[in-house]
Design a protein that fits this description.
single chain, 101 residues, alpha+beta, four-stranded mixed beta sheet, 4 helices, globular
Length: 101
């Protein structure tokens, strides 16, 4: 592990608050030290999800996953790494997770 200084996007707290308001549990993982590891692990209906917060108000956030994040997402053998940027994205994602198969 390398020493990483945690840096939250400006919308991070709002994203976490919205997940919590929808009844999900959230573990903030921005300081794991694992290159590219998503910002959040979100529990919903007995399933854990990896979620990357992207602040679309910034050029960096609009660019999508960076190289480390893409490498992690492409090599992860679990579920898909999801991206959210707004409370509306969070609500839509939680609704998708709750939709019966």
């Amino acid at each position: 592990m390398r020493n990483v200084r945690a840096r939250k996007d400006d919308n991070h707290d709002e994203i976490v608050t919205t997940f919590l308001a929808t009844g999900c549990s959230v573990a903030e993982t921005i300081a794991t030290g694992i290159p590219g590891f998503p910002d959040l692990v979100v529990g919903c209906m007995g399933v854990d999800h990896l979620v990357e917060d992207k602040n679309r108000k910034t050029r960096y956030g609009r660019a999508g996953l960076n190289a480390n994040q893409r490498k992690f997402a492409d090599s992860w053998r679990g579920g898909k790494v999801e991206e959210v940027g707004t409370p509306d994205d969070v609500i839509a994602l939680v609704q998708k997770w709750r939709k019966p198969c």
